[in-house]
C-alpha cells in the first residue's frame, strides 16, 4: 500500500510596522489599538495638513466625540476639559485644536502613562477656519472650585491688555507679576488659570518648556482660584515663576530664551501678548491663577499661646 505524506503549506507572516515620527516626538509613538467608531456617525470628516507632510482626518459626530484617522489607523477620542480650544483624548492620543487669525491649528500628541495629558507632539497641523470645525462644548462661565460662578461674562482677548506689574528675584529663582487689564467698555470676569505660551525671537513656540499650574501665588501658595470681576480699566494679576540656573545634574549647560509671552483667557483662543525677555532653565515655568491684587498681603502670624 502506498503511503502519502501530508502536505503542509507554510505561510510567511509579514509584520507591517507603520512608524510615525515628527521632529518634536523624537521617537515613534507606542502602537495603540484603535477603538471602534460609534455607529451612525454621519458628520463629514475634516482634513488637516501637518508639517511633516502627513494628514490627520477628523470627524466630529457630536459635541463629545472625535473620530480621528492618522497613518491609516482610526481612533476614537472623547472631549476633555481644557483652558482654551477643543481638546480630545483617548486610545493613547490627544487632539487639541484652536482657531485664531483665520485658521484652525491643532496638535496630535501621544498621551503619557496616566492617559491624562499629551507628553510628546507627533504632528502640528492646520487648515483654514472656514468649514466644519470641532463642535466642542459651548464656552460659558465656569465655576471656580467650590462652585462659585462669576457675575459677569468671561473676558475675551480683544478686551484685554497684558502688562508687567512687578516681580522678584533671588537664589536663581525669578517671578514676574503680570497684569491683565479690561480695556473694553463692559465688565467681564476671569476665573482659573491663564493659558501661557512662550515664544523665541523668531516667533516660534518653546514647546519643550512645561507649563505647571500652581495654586495661589508665588508669595502665598496653596490658595484655590476664585472669580475676579473686572470693571472697565480694572486689572487682574497672575504670576509666572522660573529658574535661571542650569540643571547641570541633568546635563543642562545652556538654557533657552523667550522674548514674548502670549496669554489666553480661560475658554478663549484670542491671545494677548507682551514683549519680555526670559532665560528659562530646568524646562518648566509655574503659572498662578488670576487674583484681584498684584501682591497679596502677608498672612498674619497666629497669636502666641501661653
Notes on the structure:
The protein has strands at residues 46-50, 55-62, 65-70, 73-80, 86-90, 93-100, 103-111, 118-128, 160-170, 173-182, 188-190, 195-199, 210-213, 228-230, 235-243, 257-264, 272-279, 281-287. The protein is 0% helix and 42% strand. The model is unreliable at 1-28, 30-41, 130-141 and 144-149 (pLDDT under 50). With 306 residues, the protein is an all-beta fold. The strands form 4 sheets. The protein has an 8-stranded antiparallel β-barrel with strand order 1-2-3-4-5-6-7-8. It contains no helices and 18 strands. The chain is globular.
Question: What labels would you give this structure?
Answer:
306 residues, mainly beta, eight-stranded antiparallel beta barrel, 0% helix
In short:
The chain is mainly beta. The chain has no helices and 18 strands. The chain is globular and about 50 Å long.
Question: Secondary-structure map with pairings?
Answer:
Layout: E1 46-50, E2 55-62, E3 65-70, E4 73-80, E5 86-90, E6 93-100, E7 103-111, E8 118-128, E9 160-170, E10 173-182, E11 188-190, E12 195-199, E13 210-213, E14 228-230, E15 235-243, E16 257-264, E17 272-279, E18 281-287
Parallel strand pairs: 13-18
Antiparallel strand pairs: 1-2, 1-8, 2-3, 3-4, 4-5, 5-6, 6-7, 7-8, 9-10, 10-15, 11-14, 12-16, 15-18, 16-17
Amino acid at each position: 500500500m502506498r503511503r502519502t505524506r501530508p502536505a503542509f503549506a507554510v505561510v510567511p507572516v509579514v509584520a507591517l510596522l507603520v512608524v510615525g515620527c515628527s521632529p518634536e516626538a523624537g521617537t515613534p509613538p507606542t502602537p495603540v489599538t484603535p477603538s471602534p467608531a460609534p455607529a451612525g456617525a454621519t458628520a463629514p470628516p475634516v482634513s488637516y495638513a501637518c508639517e511633516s507632510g502627513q494628514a490627520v482626518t477628523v470627524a466630529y459626530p457630536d459635541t463629545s466625540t472625535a473620530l480621528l484617522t492618522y497613518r491609516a489607523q482610526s481612533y476614537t477620542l472623547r472631549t476633555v476639559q481644557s483652558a482654551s480650544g477643543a481638546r480630545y483624548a483617548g486610545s493613547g492620543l490627544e487632539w487639541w485644536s484652536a482657531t485664531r487669525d483665520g485658521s484652525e491649528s491643532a496638535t496630535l500628541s501621544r498621551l503619557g502613562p496616566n492617559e491624562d495629558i499629551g507628553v510628546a507632539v507627533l504632528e502640528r497641523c492646520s487648515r483654514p477656519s472656514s468649514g466644519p470645525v470641532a463642535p466642542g462644548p459651548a464656552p460659558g462661565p465656569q465655576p471656580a472650585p467650590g462652585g462659585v460662578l462669576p457675575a459677569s461674562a468671561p473676558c475675551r482677548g480683544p478686551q484685554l491688555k497684558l502688562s508687567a506689574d512687578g516681580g522678584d528675584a533671588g537664589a536663581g529663582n525669578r517671578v514676574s507679576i503680570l497684569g491683565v487689564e479690561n480695556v473694553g467698555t463692559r465688565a467681564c470676569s476671569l476665573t482659573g488659570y491663564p493659558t501661557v505660551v512662550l515664544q523665541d525671537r523668531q516667533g516660534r513656540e518653546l514647546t519643550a518648556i512645561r507649563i505647571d499650574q500652581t495654586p495661589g501665588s508665588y508669595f502665598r501658595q496653596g490658595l484655590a482660584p476664585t472669580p475676579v470681576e473686572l470693571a472697565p480699566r480694572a486689572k487682574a494679576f497672575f504670576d509666572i515663576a522660573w529658574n535661571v540656573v542650569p540643571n547641570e545634574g541633568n546635563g543642562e549647560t545652556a538654557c533657552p530664551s523667550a522674548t514674548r509671552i502670549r496669554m489666553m483667557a480661560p475658554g478663549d483662543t484670542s491671545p494677548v501678548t507682551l514683549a519680555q525677555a526670559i532665560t528659562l532653565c530646568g524646562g518648566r515655568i509655574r503659572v498662578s491663577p488670576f487674583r484681584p491684587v498684584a501682591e497679596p498681603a502677608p498672612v498674619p502670624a497666629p497669636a502666641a499661646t501661653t
